[in-house]
Amino acid sequence: MQLPEYEVYAIKYGERMGTRGDMFMRGDLHDAPMAMDYFVWLIRDGERAIVVDVGFGQSEGEKRGRTFLRCPTEGLRLLGVEADAVEDVIITHMHYDHAGNLELFPNARFHIQDDELGYVTGRAMTHKVLRHSFRLADVLEMVAMVYGDRVVFHDGDDDFAPGISLHHFPGHARGLQSVRVHTARGWIVLASDAAHYYESMEKEPTFMTHENIFDMHESYRKLVRLGGSLSKIVPGHDPDVLARYPAPSPDLEGIVARLDVEPSR
Ligand SMILES: [Zn+2]
Questions:
Q1: Three-state secondary-structure class, residue 97
Q2: d(CA 2, ligand 1 centre) in Å
Q3: Is the pLDDT confidence value at 1 over 80?
Q4: Rounded-to-integer distance, Cα 106 and Cα 150, Å
């Protein structure tokens, strides 16, 4: 069977300027500035549109000192996708910057790893340091979705649809999943936070937020093995994604990157 070839987009909705010391443990030159971009991703072909992550809302982002540029649903609209028409949303993990707008997708099923929802509703959340990256309202919303028959659970690596598969990469978050998509240039991997930056895969610095350092470092390497080369892997927060990939049209420069075409490097 011929695999579908999807179009894939990264859509920037927020940003933050920090330092290397904010991002990485024992970061070299820890005072050097380091930017972080916030994205949601769109996978589509002629038949369906699948959204990967839903971003944070304005108030939560600003509470945490992030710049909110546009609602992620506005970003999708720039590509002609209305949030209420979306039927499937893959949630890579429950951190506030990935799962903060579930209610804006009223007709969607949400796909999540068993481990992730277990983690954010269980004993780990009695530790303040471990719940810091989650927002209670997002967790409650996701539990309500379970009771409303709107959650599909995945247990480890799983097929999602022809040409789309899910891959469990724990460490940054217990149930973190990356999404592998078949495109005209072959398979590519939307890493989400299995690798925040290209350098996470190249030099393996220890990202500051994690639930298990060993698993996180193992996941960097498994991710690179899955993708095969860095040109096939799209990190979750690297501003360089918008530099390496073209915008689909001039007016979307700096906002949307088209990922199913070869990057410049
Ligand atoms: Zn993130």
A1: coil
A2: 33
A3: no
A4: 10
How many angstroms separate the alpha carbon of residue 219 from the centre of ligand 1? 15
The share of the chain scoring above pLDDT 70, in percent, equals 100
> Do the Cβ atoms of 205 and 22 come closer than 8 Å?
no
Give the type of residue at 58: Q
User: What SS3 class is residue 249?
Assistant: coil
Q: CA 122: distance to chain centroid? A: 23
pLDDT of residue 27: 74
pLDDT, residue 222, reads: 98
Q: What is the pTM of this model?
A: 0.97
Distance from residue 97's CA to the centre of ligand 1 (Å):
6
Q: How far is the CA of 193 from the centre of ligand 1 (A)?
A: 5
Q: How far is CA 195 from CA 4, 77, 129, 189, 218, in A?
A: 26, 27, 21, 11, 11
- Transcribe 168-191 into DSSP letters: E--SSSTT-EEEEEEETTEEEEEE
Sign of CA dihedral 242, 45, 236, 190: negative
Is 247:257 a contact under the CB 8 Å cutoff? yes
Grouping H, G, I as helix, E, B as strand and the rest as coil, residue 91 is coil
Q: Which residues surround ligand 1, an ion (CB under 5 A)?
A: 97, 193
Task: Answer whether CATH 3.60.15.10 is correct for domain 7-258.
Answer: yes
Q: Are 126 and 185 in contact (CB under 8 A)?
A: no
Give me the phi and psi of 171, to 5 degrees please. Answer: 130, -60
